[in-house]
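hey team, just a heads up i'm posting the complex here instead of the shared drive bc the drive is being weird again. everything in one block, sequence lines first with there labels, then the predicted structure for the whole assembly after. its two chains so it's a bit long, scroll down
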Amino acid sequence: MRSPAVYAVLLVMLICCTATVCHAEQEILIGLIPEENIFNQMARHKPLASYLSDRLKTKVRFTILSRYGDVMDRFMTRKMDGAFFGVFTGVLAMEKLDAEPIAHPVNSDGTSDVQSYIFVRKDSNIRNAADMQGKRIAFVDRATVTGYLFALSYLKENGITDPKKYFREISFTGSHGSAIYAVLDGRADIGTAKSKIFQMLVAKDHIIKDELVIIKRSKNLPDTTLFLRKDMPKNIRDRIREILLSMHNDKDGREVLHKLDAKMFSEAKKGDFSYFQELAQKAGITPRTYNYR
Amino acid sequence: MCWLKSNRNGLVILLIAALSFLLPFSSYAAEITIGVIMSGDIPYYQEMQSAFMARIAKEGLSAKTEVLVQKPYPDSISLSNAARKLIAAEADVIVTYGAAAAAAVINEKTKIPHVYAAAYEPYISRLKAKNSTGTSVKLSMSSLLRYLRSMTQVTTLGIVYNSNEEDSLYQFREIVKICDQYGIRIEEINLRRHQDAKTRLKTANMDAILITGSSTAHMALPAISEYAHEHKIPSASFLLNRNSHTTVTMSYTPSEQGEKAAEKVIKIVDGTSVEKIRPDMAKEMEIVFNLKEATAMGWKLPMDLVAEATRLIK
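-- predicted structure starts here --
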């Protein structure tokens, strides 16, 4: 008869093996917030998923979170391991899910920050908050800084406490690209969006620059940042961070980065999100209790 | 007594005579005559008129309202004649669809209140119109061109317009400026009569075709669509036609404008002075992609632009 100690050792070994096997079989699911057209976004991120999968020896899969407002719920219900969040959703993830910022892409021009733009058509005669009265404004989503919070803080700073009364129509386009197209087409008079998406569209079609005028820019904000759940094993989190921060050193990695219009990844820290607090205060928003839906 | 009796009879006769004189007069006074002029008989304005009539009916005005609809050919003489007819008929209010019809009424300098719809900005604001109010539209020429360019490489763009329709001419000039920035050559199709479309298109050479807000061009839409289909080139239009084969349409919803025109007319009928009714802009825009046509032609529409569509024809 074997002693209980042997059984205990066997049991521990079994648990360890099961955990390892489970992890090897499991996939790492990472969410993407809809920044631009989701088809383009998925196509741009697919090579990164393959690159991470190869190096982690675990399948990494990206999925688009249907809209900003659903991000937190989807993150939990779909048991995601991480997500590329914007500033707003990133702060919400830190506050509500205890997620950890890992890395953010550095643009091909060496910058890793973005701004929020408030823009109008050049032929619109709107140049400041006073001119906006009775007009139509297109925000991106309630849970974005570059597509909502900055514009809201700008309006509050200019004495507009109730945008619902001030504007003839308020719409939420769901993506930065759509907010830009809405103003270009004349479906909205004022728009707000992330500088990176704005510049991306201008690079594709230079006429956009002649037709739109940016009337207000925010200070620099960190671009999309990868956050991971803190309950994900620390060694995996560290490994993902390590892969991302060094991928610009190998040829395959550089190709993947090129698809993302990025030069490299740089390390993200909690302190990167301090400007958010300033904007939230001006806009009268408390992240923990904020109803972003 | 005899005198009284004969006088009473006389009084009755006098009363009947007075009543018979007054009755038609009072019933005539209760009637409202609305004159309507469309800049050409095209589906876009027909849809606007249907919405206008539905809103008038909803207000309970149908029974006491006479609506005189004029659908002249979209040239200045025909439009001007239509305006004069309605002025001669002493319409209580004149409603116009399209900038050309609006200009025709404004040029008559009539005191009859005028309500316009689908009038192109900034053209309509330049016409000094004291007794006019209405709903104007502002269209982004570059956006429609962008949607068109997303389907095919455009080296030469055919632009269908009518130099006799001021708004269409204005749009043509705007598009030419934009094409110049893109380095796109122009194939100018100045269509003064819709019957000439086939002949004009026969000698044209282009990669894509853009139809301005010209009514004449829209009357020629079947011929233009046929040409585009035969030559496998995408087409784009600023006026909605629910039965056309146009690949992409960017247009303000006609029903919204018809309803807005009716609301302004109702205010005028209720006694509000036309000067007190502020002009406004149409706000409901439709972007329609004809995926069925695009697929049949083998064009792949970029999803980021298709995502902007309000309606897809499959």
